[in-house]
Amino acid sequence: AESDFEAKPSVLLMGQYSTGKTTFIKHLLKREYPGTHIGPEPTTDRFVTVMGGVDERRTPGNTLAVDASKPFTGLTKFGT
User: Fold this and answer.
1) Could you report the per-residue pLDDT of 19-42, keeping only the tens digit for each?
2) Do the beta carbons of residue 64 and residue 50 sit within 8 Å?
3) Rounded-to-integer distance, Cα 32 and Cα 48, Å
4) How far apart are CA 35 and CA 50, in angstroms?
5) Beta-strand runs (E) in 1-80
6) pTM
7) Alpha helix (H) ranges present in 30-72?
8) CA angle 24, 62, 43 (to 5 degrees)
């Protein structure tokens, strides 16, 4: 898709729960971000995208996956 070529670079973090992925993102941003929750149980069992913008908001991953203007349409093969 065209959006794949026009998108800004992105970084993917994967790993078992409670290994510091959310803490790492918060450290990079130097603040909390929408939907942040850290706990002993799995709290981010879906993909989360942190994107720059004017306002803060949460957009469900399945919504981003079907939005042709975003570079995530390839994820639809894993379900929506």
Assistant:
1) 888 889 889 889 887 767 676 776
2) no
3) 14
4) 10
5) none
6) 0.61
7) 61-65
8) 40
